[in-house]
Amino acid sequence: MPVMELDEAKARELEEKFDSEIRFRPLAPLAAKLVGGLLVILSLFHYYTAGFGLLPEMIHRGIHLSFVLGLVFLVFPFSKRGYDQPTKSTLLRPLGISVVDWALAIAAVIAVCHVPLIPLDDLAFRVGNPTRTDVILGGVLIVVLLEATRRSVGWPLPIIAILFMAYAIYGQSMPGILVHPGATYSQLIDHLYLTSQGIYGIALGVVATYVFHFVLFGVFATRMGLGQLFLDNAAWIAGRYAGGPAKVSIFGSALFGMISGSSVANTVTVGSLTIPAMIRLGYKKHFAAAVESTASTGGQITPPIMGAAAFLMIEFLGLPYSTIILAAIVPAFMHFFGVFMQVHFEAKRNGLRGLRRDEMPDLKDAWRRDWPTVIPLVALIGILVAGYTPYLAAFWGITLCIVVGLLNPRRRMSIRELFEGFRDGAKYALAVGAAAATVGIVVGVVTLTGVGFKLSFIVTSTAADLASGVGAFLPAWFAAPTTLTLLFTLIMTGAVCILMGCGIPTTANYIIMVTIAAPALVLLGVEPIVAHFFVFYYGVLADITPPVALAAYAAAGMAGADPFKTGNTAFRLGLGKVLVPFVFVFSPSLLLVTSDFTWANFALAFIGCALGITCLSASLSGWFLVRTHAWERIVLIIAALLLIAPEIYSSLLGGLMILPIIIRHLMAWRAGSVPATV
């Protein structure tokens, strides 16, 4: 097998094929130039404002949203059949785009720009007393926004927004605790359109500032060669060991995830090299695809870039981004550690070899060639740690990427590639921008009606009832009622996060669940940052959870594997990730930044979590040092749950349970025997 060399053009082609959020319809040459020019202008606008100062809040968000919605109607067709329609220009299809789409794009731009153009003094007077023009244009914006979101990310999120608006208007007809006085159509439009608590709210603001800039940084960092350097290092570190390409996939995805907050982008970029290598080595196609997709979902929780939701935490929690980065380190490590252990056991069980010396890159040559590509990332992290704003850090990171790309003689970026980078960076902003604005509708209804607190009360009450029912069958020393209540609340919250994530993007899922579910956890004494990370972590898991596992299905398409089988395997590989959020809720020290942090608590939680994930991986893989018996697999699962529990005695009990298994496996391993599974 040749040295893994990243073909960036092929990776972009695969991403556009498998990621529906950046899959644009075919465009006529003139239309393609128009769209490309607008995308470049959008990127340049954000690049400039990141370095030289943001515009006033409503104006900045309005410019961003007007570009986003206008472009959505130009590049996303009404239905899938639009991808096959001819691009020839006709009277009803100017530049190959239907008159209806042109009309929707123009309507969206007019409706969006109306509010930012209102003088602030006048706007303050009109909030609560909207004019007829405000109500009409607000209604137009909601309609075109829902349609733009449907086209770019699918039906689920618009349906959720419609249900919330219906709840706001028909509150008097709601049952029980959900009843409220109800809002008129005019009041609803006023709240969603004229205030900063609706469409122009925090979600849109974060996407229009932090998210856009860091996505653009990731695009340029990859183009100038940093992605290739990461892959070379991953191959050198992990490639020589059992199941080499699979472990390269994990390390490569972890490193690449530092500059890419997209699960699908991570999957197709790293997977374009590792999936074929895994298949050649002997891994089954669906398993190879599952390994890559599971590892790649870690990109959204891997510092320093992470996913869009991480930047939302800055606004929701009022914490510096350096704190969010620090809190994310251990959860990200545990995610990759869990996938690594299952891959390792799988490789040992099937006798899969590592890479030969001639199949691995020359690390010295890689660093000699690409060392300048590390400069922008180091600078970005340094500026963040120094306490400057994230978008200023991104500005200098992008600037240094451009400088290195243009000046590096070994991997020089052309002027054309520079403009293509600005164009491709803006592509990622369209779907997430529309989704963020639509989530603003949900958040606006929550703030208007107070339904978030009501839903939190319902969740905690249900959890308390379940706890009292289950607690009747358990000894008092085993679990206190408050602990069981929190446990059931976490289970319900995690399940809803996964279900919501099956149909809507991670960012939208996070915002909705933080608005509705996180208050329930806070009511039970969970620190806000812990509650937010719990929701964030489970929302990311949806990318590998059938039936809508975007990362898993993208990897399956690349491997030629069955998508549903790949999704199921990916979910199994990510089960260690399911346990981790429970650990840092019951042992907050694992996040490093909580108020009760101590090194003793951290060590206990970290060791217990690592051992628990190892036991779970051994059970699911059917291998530890040798093949496991059926009874051992059951014991390992029970021990895993005890080891991750936030209490020393349960951890000791879990350790004692696995001791006989370790002894048997050591004896069998030394004897060189591999007994069949019973």
Describe the protein in words.
- The chain crosses the membrane at residues 27-47, 59-78, 99-119, 131-148, 155-178, 198-221, 324-345, 366-385, 428-453, 473-499, 511-538, 544-561, 573-593, 599-626, 638-663.
- Residues 141-595 form the TRAP C4-dicarboxylate transport system permease DctM subunit domain.
- One of its GO terms (cellular component) is plasma membrane.
- It is built from 30 helices and no strands.
- With 678 residues, the chain is mainly α.
- Among the domains are: 208-598, no CATH class; 599-678, no CATH class.
- The longest helix is centred in the middle third of the chain and has 35 residues, at 415-449.
- The radius of gyration is 26 Å and the shape is globular.
- The two termini are 37 Å apart.
The arrangement of helices and strands along the chain is: HHHHHHHHHHHHHHHHHHHHHHHHHHHHHH
User: Which structural class do you get from the secondary structure elements?
Assistant: mainly alpha
Helix content class: over 70%
Radius of gyration: 26 Å
Coarse shape: globular
Protein name: TRAP transporter permease
Transmembrane segments: 27-47, 59-78, 99-119, 131-148, 155-178, 198-221, 324-345, 366-385, 428-453, 473-499, 511-538, 544-561, 573-593, 599-626, 638-663
Function: Part of the tripartite ATP-independent periplasmic (TRAP) transport system.
Subcellular location: Cell inner membrane
